[in-house]
Amino acid sequence: MLEVFQNHEAMKLLLIQPSFFLENGRLFRSRRRWLVGLTLPYLAALTPSEWEVQIVDERLEPVNFDGAYDLVGISFMSRNAPRAFQIASRFRDKGVAVVMGGFHVSAMPGEALQYCDSVVVGEAETVWPEVLVDAKSGRLRPIYHADVFHDMKGLPVPRFDLLDLSRYKMPAVENFTPVQTSRGCPFNCRFCEVTRFYGRTYRFRPIDEIIREILQLDTRSVYFVDDNIAASRPRAEELFEALRPLKLNWTGLVNMFTCKDIDLLDLMVESGCAHLNIGLESINPGSLKEMNKRMNQVDDYALILRNLRKRGIFFSVNLVLGLDSDTTESFAETVTFLRREKVPMSFMFIVTPRVGTALREDLEKQGRLLSMDWSRYSGSECVFQPTGFSPAELEAAFWRTYAQFYSLGSIIQRLIPTSLNRKTWMISMASNLYFAWGVRRHRVPANFY
Q1: Do domains 2-145 and 170-448 have the same CATH topology?
Q2: CATH classification of 2-145, choosing from 3.50.30, 2.60.40, 2.115.10, 3.40.50?
Q3: How far apart are alpha carbons 233 and 86 in whole angstroms?
Q4: What is the DSSP letter of 225?
Q5: Domain boundaries, given as residue ranges, for the chain
Q6: Closest CA to 383 of 399, 366, 361, 368
Q7: pLDDT above 70: percentage of residues in the chain
Q8: Distance between CA 251 and CA 271 in Å, rounded?
């Protein structure tokens, strides 16, 4: 391997975001994506200038397996794992070193090491320079473990110049550029791997560095990739105050508890909030208890959603279906509630035992895991044994619930009349019709970001 490295003046690094396999075994490809990922452009920015870096988003373009690369880096979630392993194997057959990282790899490094030379476990900032030095000398170690959490200071501006950003665009919506302001979440939901990956920490970037990055990116449309951008109220207030002069349109993820704070909501609107994605998760108290979603109180939901509508905030809610407390009746009640409260959009998912979660550990102990085929871990397939349904019955109930929410009658009821401004209403209507088209074909656009 050392001889290969010495034959190039500039080291060549290929970073790959792999696609995934559909049910028929076909590799999913598309002309556009809804959102651009942050991980690989950020990893490219952490790479010294002596390396020539290329990024390939495999959903949009094919991987060149014949390129003269010195190192290939692959980052992925569970659903992409089978394709990621296939890509890694092909490059290794050609004598090219491969390193892998991401949530799935950090939770299951032994599995990944069957297909690659090295894995990064945890956050990349503290170990990536060492990976590159070792790769250059041909002495990669099997595991690079980030033993400390990064303090979020001095982060580089992601290399979005390595991507064609015109191909990342939602229907009827301008391009949104990802920016991270914090990492972690103070909560510990059982279906989520964030606290396992980041620890029970909630770390913040310096606000002046965030503002400088946004200005350098030269964008007015930003989506904050934080797991919960307003989990700390003092910090959120400081951030939103700093955003006000920028005249942005921004979107981010918050929990239901945040939306009870009307003063903070007003500040969000003043700072340029164009959309909020909200972790509603369920209207079933039993299911919320199973998720350890203690901050969600069903009795407050109507008031909270009214707070959003009153301020003309375009919002979407996330719903997790298929927990042990769920029934056919609770699914029907969910649609009734969403229609009554005029929820503009909803992303629905079958509860999935993702690697590194407490939920998966419990289901494994109970012998209820049914599949290790990671390509099925999409949020629209049942990979465990439910209690109130068969797996097929749960999938049928999931698609039925989704279709009812995005039926034409439901769209009209939820969006007419509306408190949204004309532009936002048009975006909401276009997105609803797009989802209605996809759900009827058992293709959830949310799964194809």
Answers
A1: no
A2: 3.40.50
A3: 44
A4: -
A5: 2-145, 170-448
A6: 368
A7: 96
A8: 11
| Nearest Cα to Cα of residue 344 among 403, 417, 428, 233 | 428
Q: Given a cut of 80, is residue 446 above it in pLDDT? A: no
CA–CA distances in Å: residue 444 to residues 26, 241, 327, 406, 437: 17, 36, 22, 11, 9
Is the per-residue pLDDT at 172 higher than 70? no
**Pairing verdict, β 182-184 and 202-204:** antiparallel
pLDDT surpassing 90 at residue 429: yes
Rounded distance, CA 358 to CA 134, Å? 35
pLDDT in tens, 274-314: 999 999 999 999 999 999 988 899 999 999 999 999 999 99
**From CA 36, how far away is CA 34, in angstroms rounded?**
7
Q: What angle do CA 27, 99, 63 make, to 5 degrees?
A: 35
Please state the CATH superfamily assignment of the domain spanning residues 170-448 in this structure.
tm_1862 like domain (3.80.30.20)
Taking all residues of the chain, what is their mean pLDDT, rounded to a whole number?
92
Residues in the chain: 449
Q: What is the C-alpha separation between 427 and 422, in angstroms, rounded?
A: 9
Nearest-angstrom CA–CA distance, 87 and 81: 10
Q: How far apart are the first and last CA of the chain?
A: 36
Closest CA to 410 of 335, 349, 318: 335
Measure the CA–CA gap between 51 and 47, rounded to whole angstroms: 7
> Distance (Å, rounded) from C-alpha 348 to C-alpha 403?
11
Cα separations in angstroms, 70 against 8, 57, 217, 388: 9, 19, 29, 52
Q: pTM (2 decimals)? A: 0.93
Q: 3-class SS at 40?
A: helix
Question: Tell me: the pLDDT tens digits for 381-390?
Answer: 999 999 989 9
Read off the pLDDT of residues 40-72 as tens digits, 9 standing for 90 and up.
Answer: 999 999 999 999 999 999 999 999 999 999 999
